[in-house]
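Reposting from the mailing list since nobody answered there.

I have sequence plus structure tokens for a pair of proteins and want to know whether others read the tokens the same way I do. The first protein:
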Amino acid sequence: MKKYSLNTELSSFNTFNLYIITFIIFMCFVYTIYIKYIFGIVMWFLVLTLLYLGAFRKVLKYKSIEFDSENIYFDGKIISLKKIIMIDDGRIYYQENGENKEVIFRYNHFENNIEILREFYRESRYNK
């Protein structure tokens, strides 16, 4: 079976850009500490805190997901499409060992792979 990927090179490029921007902001923070500019230290600290709370906590949880017409694959796990509860934008909710879990992924909205996964999911639901 052909495997598809939800992660595209564009989404990886966006994550790389986030790392570069964070590095630049961090260097500005270090520079303001070096020149002892109190307002700059507070401002860059707030920017780094907001960046961490808004983006990095989610980016660090992203999983690289591949799928075919019967299963999804991530972190060495194989989850049947029949065990999936719901596919949302950026999240897949599934059932494992009797408890509901979720996996967070990053995808490009211009790619069609999420729609292919949803179609496989609908087909697996109807063919129980």
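The second protein, same order (residues first, tokens after):
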Amino acid sequence: MQLSVKEQDARTAERARKLVDKAVAALFNPAPDTFLGRKTQELFPKENDE
């Protein structure tokens, strides 16, 4: 099945719109924190057996 140039352009434009939407959504999401040394929670203090 051969698509007309107008139909091909419409499909290409739709794909481009979807890609731009995904890119914009990705830019608004914060980057994940990958620093391995960061403490996300404090440990419970250990009891001293004195």
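Reply #1 (J.P.):
I read it the same way you do. The radius of gyration is 26 Å.
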